[in-house]
Amino acid sequence: MVKLLILLFLGSQNFGFCTKLSKKVRTKQGVAVYRCTCADENWSQEASKVKACTYCGPAMPQCGVLQKVLPKKGEKYSIHDYVLPNIACPVDDKETHKSILSKYRGRQIQFCSRKCKRSFTKEPLKFLKNMIIKPEVVGLKFKKSGKASR
Ligand SMILES: [Zn+2]
Ligand SMILES: [Zn+2]
Question: What are the pLDDT digits (tens) for 113-150?
Fold first, then answer.
């Protein structure tokens, strides 16, 4: 009986802990792609790190316009973390068609062709890593001026 009570106690503690965590938005890891406006080139870096243009150097922190955020290997994302509807095909990065869809975890993902749709449904995890992530998931945001901030 005592054992049962302890288990119940631990169970309720754990439950409280879990609800606390789920309410707080955890910033996930990701790869941020910025565009250097001086060199007109893109660079990518860890989204959590301070923006540092590889063309101008860290002395130019204002340089770099956030283009997109890509998933980081090893990080887990929910289907709500992806930018949907997706304008780029997750299989070959071509422009998607609104009519070629596949349901994945309750959301519709668009493809450029039926062939790509078939490839995706066979191995969704392989191609999900090509999908663009919402910047707020990694603690970034698009500014109205187009410049990224945190
Ligand atoms: Zn630059
Ligand atoms: Zn495609």
Answer: 999 999 999 999 999 999 999 999 999 998 765 445 44
87-99 mean pLDDT = 97
43 alpha carbon – ligand 2 mean position (Å): 24
The residue count for the chain: 150
- Residues by chain with Cβ below 5 Å of ion ligand 2: 89, 91-92, 94, 112, 116
Residue spans of the domains in the chain: they are 26-74+134-150, 84-131
Distance CA 48, CA 38 (A): 23
The answer to whether residue 78 scores a pLDDT higher than 50 is yes
The CA 88 to ligand 1 mean position distance, Å, reads 26
Contact 81, 56 (CB under 8 A): no
H-assigned helices in the chain: 2-23, 114-122, 124-128
